[in-house]
Design a protein that fits this description.
- It is a single chain.
- By secondary structure, this protein is an alpha+beta fold.
- The protein has two domains: 73 residues, Roll (SH3 type barrels); 185 residues, Ribonuclease Rh, Chain A (Alpha-Beta Complex).
- 26% of the residues lie in helices and 22% in strands.
- A five-stranded antiparallel sheet has the order 7-6-5-2-8. The protein has a four-stranded antiparallel sheet with strand order 10-9-1-12.
- The two termini are 13 Å apart.
């Protein structure tokens, strides 16, 4: 089973540096003022910025090294942003410019259910009750919208490799060791080179480098797994769980409204999904 979450309050991906001018809290969720570890930015220190909450930003999403989770929101009044200003070259396959998409779908899966039908996958052969993936949601991908925004600036021969599911033959995206570590923790499919497929199909349309794309996806997955949504799934193993129940948990975890952005269950929404250990 896979759950796809749309971005109701769409973040705008950007690339650059945030320089703090004062001490300010670095929130996991600025709307709920949640700040695990009481993390704060410090004056004259710089932080990598990966998104803003809207075109006319009130908050920026930055990476705070050593924080857990590392991706945090800081008020725009707490510093300044120097954006890279770099644009992808060429015309994407979809005829939509890469990096122009403020809306994305976060696709998360329940690994034990996935492995019931894909037991030959490397990650499934190693799945055990003690694994993180057995009790938490697993990252499938982060997909720029609208649907069909795919393969931006990807050569035809690479697309053919991807269409044939020969993921190990795809080019390896440039991901830092730290980002790869975070990604592997939330995306079991890394063992089958899922990240290579996700990069050529979706990440190339994100409008930033592979490391920023995967850091963003991993950060969203970490936040979701730290929320009541993930606990709802873990507590419902072997029980019935409705789409409406998931929506309610999502609203409870992230504030009223985002539950409407739960786009689909890869089963009929009128049915009830059963989670299996």
């Amino acid at each position: 089973m896979m759950v796809a979450f749309g971005s109701a309050r769409a973040d705008v991906p950007i690339s650059g540096v945030f320089t703090a001018t004062q001490v300010c809290p670095a929130f996991q969720s600025f709307r709920k003022s949640s700040n695990p570890g009481d993390v704060a930015v410090e004056p004259n220190k710089t932080y990598r910025v990966i998104a803003k909450n809207k075109p006319d930003a009130t908050h920026y999403r930055i990476v705070v090294s050593g924080a857990e989770p590392a991706e945090r929101w800081v008020s725009s009044s707490c510093g300044r942003v120097d954006a890279d200003g770099q644009q992808p070259q060429g015309v994407p396959h979809s005829s939509v410019r890469a990096g122009t998409h403020a809306t994305h779908v976060l696709a998360m899966g329940w690994e034990p259910a996935f492995c019931e039908q894909h037991g030959d996958k490397s990650e499934c052969r190693q799945l055990a009750p003690s694994n993180f993936a057995s009790t938490h949601l697993s990252l499938h991908g982060l997909w720029p919208q609208p649907r069909g925004t795919q393969y931006c600036n990807v050569a035809p021969d690479v697309r053919d490799i991807d269409h044939n599911h020969n993921w190990r033959e795809l080019p390896e995206p440039e991901i830092s060791p730290d980002t790869l570590r975070r990604l592997a923790a939330v995306m079991p499919g890394v063992q089958s080179k899922l990240e290579r497929h996700e990069w050529v199909l979706h990440g190339t349309c994100f409008g930033a480098k592979a490391d920023e794309y995967f850091a963003r996806a991993a950060g969203l997955a970490e936040a979701l797994n730290a929320s009541k949504v993930s606990r709802l799934f873990a507590d419902s193993i072997g029980k019935c769980l409705s789409a409406e129940g998931i929506r309610a948990a999502f609203d409870d975890a992230f504030g009223a409204g985002p539950g409407r952005a739960l786009l689909s269950l890869v089963t009929d929404e009128a049915t009830i999904a059963r989670l299996r250990s």
